[in-house]
Amino acid sequence: MKGKIIIKIAFVLTVIFSILSMTGFFHKNKTDNELIERMNKGFYLKGNDEVIVDYGSEYIDEGFVANIEENKSIKDIKIENNVDTNKVGNYEIIYTIKYKDKTKSIKRIVKVVDNAAPTIEVNCKDTIYLPINSTYKNCSYKATDNYDKDVKVEINSNVNTKKKGDYEVTYTAIDSSNNKASKTIKVSVRNKNELNYIVIKISKQKLYYYKNKELVFTTAVTTGRYNATKTGNFKVRNKVRNTTLKGKDYESKVKYWLGYNGNNFGIHDASWRSKFGTKNYYYTGSHGCVNVPTKNMKKLYNMVSVGTPVYIRK
Q1: Best-predicted range by mean pLDDT among 8-12, 88-92, 98-102?
Q2: What is the mean pLDDT of residues 187-213?
Q3: Is the CATH number of domain 193-313 3.40.190.10?
Q4: Cys-Cys crosslink for 294: which of 75, 106, 244, 269, Cβ 3.0 to 4.6 Å?
Q5: Are the beta carbons of 108 and 93 closer than 8 angstroms?
Q6: For residue 2, what pLDDT band results from cuts at 50, 70 and 90?
């Protein structure tokens, strides 16, 4: 009985095989496999399957090869391309061919990236000088970017105005692609008298006043005749309004007096002079003091404090 069943199964299988052979089933399946294999080998991308493109640049695709059968070009081709180089992001180009009754797709990834760093402008000098115990305020700044409208700015500071020293403040602009640009400002904290000082140059007949090491005031002067104005390093010892200067052969009333060397030498207004800053000082100059036009002396008097260094040079 068992043997008869096996014989019947074998007979049925033989009949099915004969029918499939007559209909070309096995030949067709073989042909399909060969076609798929040819499509896999003959349809491919030119260049890389992933491409990186700079934002705003022109993208030219390298295309593809579709060589399925010799001397037979593929006409049924579809390309889907959504690449926009004016917007950062990942895009796809999908290439689809249809040959006979088979369809195959391949794709390329296009990454549009922003590699350009932002720019940052800090609106202050590269070095800022501050007296001890003063208040430090961050400088204003402007950050721009080729892609982002708003750019994040981080400020890193170690400034301590309570302690003499040199410090730094770094302004860093960061765009959405994490590109960075930095600007570092130096902050020098010093004693007040190291930052604010008067410089008098006899050869130029000029007085210069510096505040926080920045020149803020200049005036013509007349110094002593026959080198009566001594050079050296001094400081403002006193400030006096409306006083009379007396010597062996003179008595002069002045409105503003800044004494810098004992009781006899100072910087003061000289209403009796009509000209300042001329080379005639050597013969027609003062008894040793530094003469300043009244209007300018008023300004200097109001700016300078006792203890301000006075540097007199040839």
Answers
A1: 88-92
A2: 96
A3: no
A4: 269
A5: yes
A6: low
Cβ partners under 8 Å of residue 294, min gap 6: 255, 256, 269, 270, 271
Q: What average pLDDT score do residues 58-86 get?
A: 85
Categorize the per-residue pLDDT at 25 as very low, low, confident or very high, splitting at 50, 70 and 90: very low
b/e map 174-210, b = 16+ CB within 10 Å: bbebebebebebebbbbebebbbbbbbbbeebbbbbb
Asked if 103 contacts 97 with a C-beta cutoff of 8 angstroms, the reply is yes
Of 79-88, 165-174, 248-257, the least confident? 248-257
For domain 42-113, say whether CATH 2.60.40.10 is its number: yes
User: What is 60-82 written as a DSSP string?
Assistant: ----EEE-SBTTB----EEEEE-
Domain residue extents for the chain: 42-113, 119-190, 193-313
Beta-sheet pairing, 180-190 with 127-131: parallel
Domains 42-113 and 119-190 share a fold: yes
State the distance between the two ends of the chain, measured CA to CA, in whole angstroms. Answer: 136
- Report the top-level CATH class of 119-190: mainly beta
Rg for the chain (alpha carbons), in Å?
Answer: 45
Q: Give helix 2-23 / helix 25-42 axis angle, nearest 10°.
A: 60
| Cα 290-129-221 angle, rounded to 5 deg | 15
Q: How many CB atoms lie within 10 A of CB 166?
A: 12
pLDDT at 67: 82
Mean pLDDT of 158-181: 97
| 218: Cα separation from own chain's centroid | 34
